[in-house]
């Protein structure tokens, strides 16, 4: 009998089992510690880093739905949202930011280091008082003696305090009044690059955040990614939708960790029928959320990070917010003594608040379209 082909669901299930086993044997991680290099390198040694990209451009072991699901596995098994986001960032950078724009063996070597757990890379786009608006970004790169000199500032760089290298977006020219951007791989120990505190270092531990100051930072031309002065449109512009889609998996996993904790505590507490009904309602709602998260990731894989997906994510974020509020209200009424719940809840509130203004703009646009467009099923007065 011929071997049957492995379906995507089976492959994802196998990766999930491998990830759970890797997490079970990983070194312990404390929220108050610096970035856990030993934990990270353990995942690399167990081939659980770089599953979403291949350094040589071959097919990866995980597609976007599998990446989202694995982020959820990490969040649920570790009860550390920050760990899940750090892992997710590694896969996003390898698959979406660096991988499609590899131009030489140095870029491929960086991807291998990321997959092996030897290189931690962070993405630096946003700037003080500018956010990520292309007209307002000022960090610039200019050619000098066959190299590039980078000058400017970057803010709120996730994984920045522990990063070995940064992918920095910088203005490299202006065409017809529009800034043109390139992406540069800048080693953390490069002369002219200084990490600065932001006051948010403890946000989503052990992920960590920092700011960057670049003052005549010398970067070899070989460290420029192959974005052909179009790095903003290729990387920064679609990143919000891509990140929101994959964050859904991590958040759903963290919410399942909350539910697991509540269930453990109730097993020895003789819960009332009303308590069981409310706990069951949270479980069923989370099952529905899981379906929406998976649908969002499948749409990303099929169509890329487009406007329709961004709208879906905005709606899903509202559902996640309401579930989280209900879970916290339920836990408060029970006076739950599960010690991990406050940490998970706090992390989830932070993630749910990311880019809140972007979501509210989509709510306004959707509402405006609803009242300004006459649906064809309406009956004339």
From TrEMBL:
GO MF: acyl-CoA dehydrogenase activity; flavin adenine dinucleotide binding
Acyl-CoA oxidase/dehydrogenase middle domain segment(s): 122-216
Signal peptide: none
Top-level taxon of the source organism: Bacteria
InterPro entries documented for this protein: Acyl-CoA_Oxase/DH_mid-dom, Acyl-CoA_Oxase/DH_mid-dom_sf, AcylCoA_DH/ox_N_sf, AcylCoA_DH/oxidase_NM_dom_sf
The name this protein goes by in its record: Acyl-CoA oxidase/dehydrogenase middle domain-containing protein
Organism: Caenimonas sedimenti
